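Page 42, continued from yesterday. The earlier attempt failed because a stray header line got pasted into the input along with the sequence. Redoing it now with the clean sequence only.
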Amino acid sequence: MSKAMAKKKRKKELAGRLPRVSFDRVFVCLIAAFTFILPLFIWPGETEYGYGKSIIAFLVVSVLLILWAARSLLKGEWKIRFPWLAYPAGFLIVVGLLSMINAVNGRVVIQSLAVFLYFVLFYLIVANAVKEKRDVTLILYALLISSFLAALYGLLQYLGVMRGATGGHGLNEIISTMGNRNYLGGFLAYLLFPTVILIVRLRSRILRAIAIPLISFNFGMAMLVNQTGIRVALIIAGIGVIIGWAIFRPVEPLRKNRAWLIALLVVLAFTFLVEAPSGPLNSVVGLSATGGSSWIGRMWAQNAGKVRAWDWWVGYEMFKDHPLLGVGLGNYKLNFIPYKAKFLATPQGKNYNFYIARAAQAHNEYVQVLAELGILGIIGLIGLIGMTAYSLWTALYRNRDEADRFDLLLLTGGVITFLVHSLVSFPAHLPASSLVFVTLLGIATSRAYGDAAQTTVTLKRAPLLVTAGVVFLFTISVSVIALRDYAADFLFQAGVRQMQLGQVHLAEETFNRSIRLDFCPRQTYYYLAIAKLQQGDYRGALSDLKKCRTRFVTEAVYLNIANVAVNLGDTKTAKENVDLLLATHPSKDTTLQAHYLDGIIAIREGDYSRASKILEGLVKSNPSFERAYIALGDLYRAQGLTVSARKNYETALKLIEKKLARNTARLSSATRITAQEYSRLRSEINMLQQEKKAVESSLSRLP
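This time it went through. Structure tokens are written below.
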């Protein structure tokens, strides 16, 4: 035998010894990798943690869909398993499209719909890819490790070991990789029951032994964040699991794994005693949430409840105006301030006589669906929840394997936790929480637990080619748009930093580049307007601020529109925005500025009596508000009251000089200052210097 033939024979023998990895197994591993990465993904320079996670979801799910379609083309057929849950989800997608009819901004609807669609597609991917119990344990273990790392990061922020929200320590520092302690707590809670599957399913004792402390640690962190909604959701889910166990009686998994389950319960109980705010050991170990049982904590809890009720009433006002299709998917945040004013004018609204900031979400997924999608949306949501209950019940009823039934009950516990927590939060709007929900549903309705409540469609020849082509075209298009949006977000952040450093011309150019890339630019228009204002381009600034009313609606937007409009002589626009702003019971500082602008509008309209009443009231209640004194000086000068004008100008000048000295001293004495704080101080100093020049000029013109 020649050397070449011997070498070839050895290669064949070696190839025969290597394990063959199927496409299906690789595909499941990619799904597990995605579920591990997404909750942990953060990137410096992002506007918001969830934004980066959404972009990653678009890209990864696109890759998974392309791989699935390519594999089907190679096989010559594509078998797609449609659990019946997909049908109400499809109905909601259609309703979402129809909601564009009433939307303030149609592009926001498309963005929100794209996110929803992609999580539905990921649900279908999981439901089709998971076929064996080892697939289930792989994905759940990936989620467990990911959640543990997120929880550990949150704990280190709580202790002050790693930087949190402000660089201190305590509950308010916990943002982890989620952006908020409530988001973290919810994410951990949804996984508590499903990850118990690992204790009864894994063959490796080492992996089981590792899983017990990880599950317990996550439970402890879910308690530590001190959110009543999370605890109530877990309790209700626990009751649901117990009732399900009593009905279907999966005894064998408990008997077979009783030692492991008892060990888990013991560690969970100990963790609760240590980390829960009400635990008796918290005073010793110092890990409890402060203020949980104090009168301050109770007062905070009461106010938080009232805030949520406010958000729900505002959502109800939106529904009353557009009962069939709502105000448009994703448009709650764009309608909040106008409808906040509308609610406050109602009899119920008169009880809410305290300031509440603008809400981007309703803090109740069901109310938000009602507001954004109307009656048709609620029908779709009820159908989705009803079909979820039917699918899980059918799977439990038809599956005679006790271990499978126990798994399905634990998965149901996670689903119930999510749905109950949705009554006081918005987990469906958080990528990491949505990932957990659709993954649990995908696993529960997968082939690993039977073929109940599903329809299988087989595509061949032309239908296969057309479907695969649509998938390729659609996913590539979405991925390109997502990447452009991500680049736009980084440009936006760069523009903000440039403004903070005083590079206003460069910032304007950067913001314009960001807008060109962004599918639906929002707050970029606001910062672009501020950049134009600083350069004296008032008309350009007003145009961009008006665009914000359908893109990025905050109190500052209305205040700046009124301010620029009054300076341009457009008192009608200024008055409309001031009146709306004051009708929303804004913050104390915003109220002060709005009343001041109202006084200026009265001066411009020649209503000196009303202007005098407004401005005199302002200086009486806010004696250090120098702009009101300047306006009074202008008012009295216009009326020929020289002595009164001089008195107010001189008072304003003293206040300006005092504030200038204070801000200049703070700026020069600061050894360490953030770019944001530096920008704020410089902006205030520049404004005060301009006011000083104006006052000195007015004084010099007085006889």
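Notes: The longest strand covers residues 77-83.
Reminder to self: strip header lines before submitting.
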